[in-house]
Automatic annotation (TrEMBL):
Residue span(s) of domain DUF1835: 2-126
Protein name, as recorded: DUF1835 domain-containing protein
Domain DUF3658: 160-257
Domain of life per record: Bacteria
Pfam families: DUF1835, DUF3658
Native source species: Flaviaesturariibacter amylovorans
InterPro entries: DUF1835, DUF3658
Length: 291
């Protein structure tokens, strides 16, 4: 079989599981883009695909990753092309799609399944939806992401494998078309496989909640934001929203976000410098934003 996952950490965990269970042996394909954020595109629309690529490029070039990593979405079309070619050349090959209970994976599934209708009967899904597993301390938990599952527990996880039904092959691509038509830049999982579109500012409250008027390094701020968020998204997207909030005057970024996470500071407006100036008879708005 061919295993397909939507996050690098999932692929790493699945490889470890293969070492423990030879019946899981197979190639691993990874879809790199995060379809839970940004403008979407239908498979045959080059213009909307380019719009999405340009949007990601804008975010990527303002992030610390620009100097060290490639844009994450550029290979997905080629990945899908190669996957289909393998399935065409090997008619008995099966595709196993692994999904955690999160918007990232489910949106990726809708993107993928909208282009796999001709392979009905050979596509299987393993969805960890509200299912308990044992963690490394021996306790029961409900994983949100596949990589949270211990490799030994994949023996149990593989029992969830089921064929994507003919009905799903017909209906699920319509979900992708709906998400594309709604045109939102944020999508969250509301339960089951239900994805809801949300406005650009959906995560802004999570960002501002993690900040204080004291400046802190970007890496510490991002860690706090992600650790406290109930529904998580990627750090590049969050940094894009932080830059937007800075333009609106809702927070202050000092330094260069393209050099590294430790090369810029973030704080709420009205820090110690501004307060001191106001107390001296000046106006807060006349004081430069410095940490």
């Amino acid at each position: 079989m061919i295993h397909l996952v939507f996050q690098p950490a999932d692929a790493d965990t699945l490889r470890k599981a293969m070492e423990l269970d030879e019946t899981l042996q197979g190639d691993i394909v990874e879809i790199k883009d995060d379809y839970a954020v940004g403008p979407l595109y239908v498979s045959d629309d080059a213009e909307t695909w380019q719009q999405r690529r340009d949007w990601w490029k804008e975010l990527w070039e303002a992030s610390p990753y620009v100097a060290t990593e490639n844009l994450p979405m550029v290979d997905d079309k080629m990945t899908l092309h190669n996957l289909k070619r393998t399935l065409d050349e090997h008619p008995k090959e099966e595709l196993w799609i692994w999904m955690g209970q999160n918007g990232h994976d489910v949106c990726g599934y809708y993107w993928l399944i909208s282009q796999m209708q001709s392979y009905q009967g050979r596509v299987f899904v393993l969805y960890m939806n509200n299912l308990p597993f044992i963690n490394e301390k021996g306790g029961i938990f409900y994983p949100v992401y596949l990589f949270e599952i211990q490799p030994a527990e994949y023996r149990k996880a593989k029992k969830l494998c089921r064929k994507v039904t003919l009905s799903e092959m017909e209906v699920d691509p319509d979900e992708w078309k709906r998400l594309c038509a709604e045109g939102a830049k944020v999508r969250i999982l509301e339960g089951g496989k239900k994805i809801a579109s949300k406005p650009d500012n959906h995560y802004d409250a999570d960002i501002l909640k993690a900040l204080t008027k004291e400046p802190r390094k970007g890496n510490k701020v991002m860690f706090d934001i992600l650790s406290k968020m109930k529904i998580k998204t990627g750090d590049v997207f969050l940094l894009w929203r932080m830059r937007h909030l800075a333009e609106m005057g809702d927070l202050v970024i000092t330094g260069d976000t393209t050099k590294g996470w430790k090369d810029f500071d973030v704080r709420l407006p009205g820090g110690p410098v501004a307060v001191a100036a106001e107390g001296a008879g000046g106006e807060e708005g006349s004081t430069p934003d410095t940490p």
